[in-house]
Structure formats: C-alpha cells, structure tokens
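Model it.
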Amino acid sequence: MHFRFICPKFLRQTFHEFAGCSIQQSEWARAYYDHLRNDKNKSHQVAVRSLAFKWLRIIYRCWKDGKPYDEAIYMQSLRRRGSLLAGVLGTPSDVGWKPVAGFQKLSKNNA
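Modeled.
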C-alpha cells in the first residue's frame, strides 16, 4: 500500500473530521458507518476514512453540477440504484427490486 505524504494534509484532515461529524447528522452516513463497523469489522478510523471518500465524491459532483447537496435527493438516488444502504434506511425501495435466486432483480412491473 502506498500512502501519499506530500499532499494537502489540512484538507485531508478536514474531510476526515467532516465525515466523523456527518455520522451524527446524516441518516445514510450513520447506516454506512455502522455497516462498516459491524458487518465488515472495520476500525473507527478506517470506517471514517471510507465515509470521507464517499463524501468527497458527493461534494465533487455537487461542485461539477453547480448544485447544492440535498440529502433527500441522495437517499432517493440510493433507493433508485438498489443500494444496500437503501434497505438499511427503512423506507422500502420504490424501484420494485425483488430477490431472485439470491440476487436483486428489477421486477417486470417496474421495468
């Protein structure tokens, strides 16, 4: 594994702290963090780093599109794509996914 030492350390630390704070404020961030900690047996630092990487991609997309972040839109996107986090969040997916032979398939009614 290669760790980059010459980088904006303050920016890296900022994203790490932002991700840590988002666990208390964001429903999907809490679900993702809990999934990494409980199901994947990751340490706190690894889970927060992974969450920070997700936030980095979200913030980059918001910047490229010129739109502010909206948690409701992101959670709707998770459900639409059939993300495992959508099942943890409690609201059933409106896409119509159903298990077929152990895999998630789009039902014919919603295809």
